[in-house]
Amino acid sequence: MTSAGEQPDRTVLLTDTGERPWRSANLYGGDEYSAAYDELTNALGDFLDRLAEARPETELIASMTESLSELARGLDPLAVAERDRVFGRRTDLVSRGQTMSPTVDLAEVDDRSASGTVYFGPYFLGGNGAVHGGAIPLVFDEILGRLANASGRPPQRTAYLNTDFRSITPVNRTLTIRAWLVSEDGRKRVLRATIHDQDILCAEAEGLFIALRPGQP
Ligand SMILES: CCCCCCCC/C=C\CCCCCCCC(=O)SCCNC(=O)CCNC(=O)[C@H](O)C(C)(C)COP(=O)(O)OP(=O)(O)OC[C@H]1O[C@@H](n2cnc3c(N)ncnc32)[C@H](O)[C@@H]1OP(=O)(O)O
């Protein structure tokens, strides 16, 4: 007996090919180490997507738990200070070397705007095919934060981030994301962003970013 139950519905799968479009070709031009690390975070993200979709039997749950615990123990002695870490700090990678947010693949970026695509895989499902309402502000913070911190501007922190959910944001679709600078006033920058599914506005956000003073955490 397993806890997987009878006759699971396998009809609603990710894509015909099983490929995650946002998990590939993630290099902006990084070195060999970045490329290898990108492969690692892609594999991890892929695992999370497939885990989110799967209904494993008890024996497989136990063996996967053991494998994951062993991998985690292997990393234990490698922990380093924040400034020396790799995760989330590789700006030469489209994914930034992280799996916390879906990859925002920016095709066009200048001083005042950025646009590209985002793809929320099954890991980011809230329910009924819609992305979790917390994952959407996460992506907005990611793209607005990148734009606020771009072009040699001093490091900025988000003071507020207001999100309006206009219609459901679907998982497993390539969506368009846009961000632009609205105003600058001393240390304060207001930026806005949208996510569209073709011509449907899924969500929009406004963020206030404050440039940090020297030494400010
Ligand atoms: C180190 C940053 C990252 C570097 C990245 C490097 C590049 C990496 C590349 C890619 C990045 C990818 C993307 C990641 C980016 C994500 C960024 C985040 O999510 S940060 C985490 C969440 N945010 C917090 O934890 C802030 C917590 N809050 C604070 O630390 C302070 O409140 C802070 C810094 C926001 C402001 O504090 P004050 O003491 O410096 O300044 P005061 O005097 O309070 O405010 C300045 C002005 O702003 C207004 N203001 C402040 N907060 C406001 C608010 N909530 N609403 C309206 N106005 C506000 C004030 O009224 C004041 O305006 P008036 O100068 O008087 O006109």
UniProtKB/TrEMBL annotation:
<dbReference type="GO" id="GO:0016020">
    <property type="term" value="C:membrane"/>
</dbReference>
<feature type="domain" description="Thioesterase">
    <location>
        <begin position="128"/>
        <end position="200"/>
    </location>
</feature>
<keyword id="KW-0963">Cytoplasm</keyword>
<protein>
    <recommendedName>
        <fullName>Acyl-coenzyme A thioesterase THEM4</fullName>
        <ecNumber>3.1.2.2</ecNumber>
    </recommendedName>
</protein>
<dbReference type="Pfam" id="PF03061">
    <property type="entry name" value="4HBT"/>
</dbReference>
<dbReference type="InterPro" id="IPR052365">
    <property type="entry name" value="THEM4/THEM5_acyl-CoA_thioest"/>
</dbReference>
<keyword id="KW-0443">Lipid metabolism</keyword>
<keyword id="KW-0276">Fatty acid metabolism</keyword>
<dbReference type="GO" id="GO:0005737">
    <property type="term" value="C:cytoplasm"/>
</dbReference>
<dbReference type="GO" id="GO:0006631">
    <property type="term" value="P:fatty acid metabolic process"/>
</dbReference>
<keyword id="KW-0966">Cell projection</keyword>
<keyword id="KW-0378">Hydrolase</keyword>
<keyword id="KW-1003">Cell membrane</keyword>
<dbReference type="GO" id="GO:0016787">
    <property type="term" value="F:hydrolase activity"/>
</dbReference>
<dbReference type="InterPro" id="IPR029069">
    <property type="entry name" value="HotDog_dom_sf"/>
</dbReference>
<keyword id="KW-0053">Apoptosis</keyword>
<keyword id="KW-0472">Membrane</keyword>
<dbReference type="InterPro" id="IPR006683">
    <property type="entry name" value="Thioestr_dom"/>
</dbReference>
<comment type="similarity">
    <text>Belongs to the THEM4/THEM5 thioesterase family.</text>
</comment>
<keyword id="KW-0809">Transit peptide</keyword>
